[in-house]
Design a protein that fits this description.
mainly beta, Beta-clip-like, single chain, four-stranded mixed sheet, three-stranded antiparallel sheet
């Protein structure tokens, strides 16, 4: 496997090779739930799109809305554009940690596709939050769990409310 730091080369104008950047691949646009990340072109399954860069913090900030927990116990406050990745219970991308010479790079998080993504399609990941942080899910997929939660912790939550009942209450954080 090549390092995700190896930037693929693509043909540019007049047949010249140029490096393909994340901005060549994705763009941020509005969604019904806020902002999201969308493919500018077809992205094949298994493609490493890049490292999720940002500030690595020792503690969660006051507004942890975009934070991602890292194996080191710290949190990553991602920068745009990947800060705007949205959740789906049927994701088309996944996060992973790179291993270099057998050692997990604990404070470095990467994004790759898990299936082919069409131009204009939103890039989506499964947040897999713990049950204590779960919120109602509005992804609308056929496989929606009703909660943004780690599938292994779904049994700790009440069944999702039906459409007329309003949102369910998450479990207490005690």
């Amino acid at each position: 496997m090549t390092s995700p730091q190896d930037t693929p080369l693509v043909r540019g104008g007049r047949g010249r090779l140029r490096a393909e950047t994340l901005r060549d691949l994705v763009q941020v646009a509005d969604t019904p739930l806020g902002r999201g990340v969308f493919a500018r072109r077809k992205l094949v399954a298994g493609r490493v799109l890049g490292e999720i860069v940002g500030d690595v913090l020792a503690v969660e900030p006051d507004d942890p809305s975009y934070c991602m927990e890292l194996p080191s116990g710290r949190v990553l406050e991602p920068a745009a554009p990947l800060r705007f990745l949205n959740h789906s219970c049927e994701p088309n991308c996944e996060l992973f940690y790179w291993e270099e010479e057998g050692a997990l790079q604990e404070d470095r998080l990467w994004l790759q596709t898990i299936r082919t993504i069409k131009p204009g399609e939103e890039l989506l990941i499964d947040y897999s939050w713990p049950a204590t942080a779960a919120i109602p899910c509005r992804c609308g997929t056929a496989a929606c769990r009703g909660w943004i939660v780690d599938p292994e912790e779904l049994h700790l939550l009440p069944p999702p409310a039906s459409a007329g009942d309003g949102p369910p209450s998450p479990p207490s954080r005690s």
